[in-house]
Each structure stands twice: as structure tokens, then as C-alpha cells.
Amino acid sequence: MTLAALFSGASGLAANSTALDVVGNNLANLNTTGYKTQRTLFRDQVYQLLDGGSAAGVTGSGGTNASQLGNGVTVGTIDTQFTQGAVNPTGRSLDAAISGNGFFVLRSPTGQLYSRAGNFDVDSSGFLVEPSTGNRIQRTGTAGEGSATLPGFQVAGNNDIRVPIGSGVPGVPTSNVTFRGNVSSKTAVGDPAVNLTPIQFFDSQSGSHTLSVSFTKTADNTYSVSATATDATVTLPPTSVTFDTSGKLLSPASLAISITGIAGAATQTVNLNFGTPGQSTGLTQTGDATDGAAVTQDGSGSGTLLSVSIDANGTIQGLSSNGRTVPVAQLAIASFNNQGGLIRAGTNTFSTGPGSGEPLIGSANTGGRGAISGGALEGAGVDIAVEFSRLIIAQRGFQVNARTISAANDTLQELANIIR
């Protein structure tokens, strides 16, 4: 019996020593980005059956319970607690934190890995990587692959994310010009054209030109429109712009013009937007001086990619020097049927295990995956108070099992003394 107590105490020392190791590792990773705490769960070991017990007798005698002797304790499991860590702003555009379920997807030389740590950087080749290992961050969807109006930063079929800072971003041809201001009602019928302040517009090759629009009064409250553009031919439909007796625009709200003859550029249609009929938000006609002007246009010239940011859906948005915001890529987010089955691979990463199932990869904010907080990192999910409590419990467990061994040793010593 005393020998059994020795072995039980030894198993208790080993199990509680492991618990101390786990707590120590948690506390050591108190400041590790995206770290998830572990906990140690014990289970008792195999039992020696001393008496199997008996059922109640037919003569009215009572039954007996089984008698078993335990053989100590062992570590049942060391599991991971995927509690949400605090999301702390960093102000760094390439940092990202997941609020909710999911993992960033990384490609390593040995296979695909998953991480909650979003401290990313761009390597010398322009790829988005985990800086301490060089593992490349993966994308999902077609964002950043380009279209007729968007630049292509990503290669179809390759999920490595490229962030080519300094690369060219094409412009957008102008399709709308908006006017504001007044046309003087004191203009006499047939007087020379009233010139509105011109504006710069852009063709399909990002070339810039000047568009000038003029009004000529043909009758009371009625004007014909003409337009010219540098290095181009402008064609207008035969439409008159009219105002009511209070000076508000009657018609038309807009006028579509055709611009041709720009060397190498496509023919483009530009809508001249004069305002909402019946309101004074666009062009008006009053007795004040003419100050009508083209105030905005929706085109842009070519530019270069200056910086990026990450939105809640995990889309990396690029800001160009021409003012355009264009999608660069969308971060892939993986979820699992049983994330507790993931295997820790070090360097803040996990790999799939037999109990985790295959990754379900998609975009943030879909399929139960969490949202992305750009310019922030998730802190470690270590609760110091809980860990100190576990530390004390494991320490006491170690102490009492050491006392068990000491007591068993004393008993054996007494037995040895009887022989003397």
C-alpha cells in the first residue's frame, strides 16, 4: 500500500509540474500578439479492483459496493482557450486584428499555417508577409486582379498578396461635370456668349484637357449652349437651357456631350449637370452678375500607389497620388469546425490537426467569421489574475504530493525500524 502511495505522489508531482509549466508559458506570453492561453486538465489513472462487490441476495441480504484503489493522476489534456484578446490601436496601416472568429492564412515552405497575429509587413519583392518568418499572407476572392477601370495588382491563381507601393494607378476618364452659380438675367437677347468658368477633364489615357462652356441668350429665360475643349472636338445636341420666372432651372437637368478627336484616346461622353429643376442647387438666373462655373468633375489623371489601409471586410485599400482609392487585395480568413483541434506550430501560428477539420476559407464578416480592425493588433488573451490563481493551485498541488511521498517514506522507514 505504501508503495502505491509513493507512485501516486510521484504522478501528482509530474502532473502539477506540467500545470506549472503551462501557467509559466502563459505568463511568459503576456505580451505576445494574438496569443491564446492554454490550461491543464487532469484525469485520474487506472484503478486496481480490490473487490468487485455483489448484488443483493435473494434471501434478503444486502449487496456490497466495489472496492478500487487509484494509481495517481496524469495530464488529461492541455487545451487552448480561444477567448477574444483586447484590440489595441497601433496607427500602423499594415496591422490588422480579427474581432471574432477566424484566423489569418499564411503560406510557409512546409504548408499552410493560421494565425491571429496581424503584424504584417511588405518584403523586398512587394509581398505582404509575416516579418519574423517571411511567410506570405494569403488572399481570397478577385479583389485587386484588375478590370477595365481598376489596376491589377494580383495575379489570378496566385493567392500571395502583392502590395506594390509606387506602382502606377491609371486615371479615370471624366464622365460628369457639375455646374454651380448664376447666369445674369440682365444679358440681352443675342448678346455675345456668357462664358462659364472652365474646368479640366481627363480622357481615356489620363490626358488632361480644358472644357469651356458658354451660354447665349436666345429668348427670355432661354439659352443655347456651346462647348469647346483643347485638342478635341465637342458635339452637343440642339438643346436649350431654360429657367422659370423666379430664376430656378426648368430644364434640362443635364446635357450629354460627345468628345472626339483626342489623339490615341477613345470617344467619350460627358454629362454636363446643371442642377435639379425647380431648385437653386445648380445654375440659377438672377439679376446678379454671372459667376457660373464648372465646379467638379469625376475623372482623374494617372498616379502612383502611395499607401494602403485595411477595412472591416479585410480589403486592403490603396490610396493613389491621383486621389483614387483602389482595392489591392482581400485578406483570406479561415474558420474551423473545431478550432480547439488546431496544433500550435510556434511563431504565433497554428496548423491543422486530426480534430480540427479542414479550414473554411473566405472573407471577413461572412460565414461566421469576424470583422477586421485595420491599424490595430489583438493582444494576448492572458488573464493575470486567473493565471496567478492557477499558479497557486499547481504549486499547492505539487507541495501536497511531495508531502505524500514524504509520509510514505516515513512509513517505510518505520517498517524498516521494526526489523532492527
Describe the structure.
Residues 196-299 form the Flagellar hook protein FlgE D2 domain. Residues 375-418 form the Flagellar basal-body/hook protein C-terminal domain. This is Flagellar hook protein FlgE. It holds the Pfam family LlgE_F_G_D1. Keywords: Bacterial flagellum, Cell projection, Cilium, Flagellum. With 420 residues, the protein is α+β, with helices and mostly antiparallel strands. The chain has 3 domains: 2-51 and 66-76 and 381-419, no CATH class; 87-169 and 304-378, no CATH class; 176-297, Sandwich (Tick-borne Encephalitis virus Glycoprotein, domain 1). The protein is 15% helix and 37% strand. The chain contains 2 helices and 33 strands. The strands form 9 sheets. Strands 7, 8, 11, 28, 29, 30 and 31 form a 7-stranded antiparallel β-sheet that branches. Strands 13, 18, 21, 22, 23 and 24 form a 6-stranded mixed β-sheet that branches. The chain is rod-shaped. The two termini are 22 Å apart.
Question: Keywords for this structure?
Answer:
420 residues, alpha+beta, Tick-borne Encephalitis virus Glycoprotein, domain 1, six-stranded mixed beta sheet, 33 strands, LlgE_F_G-like_D1
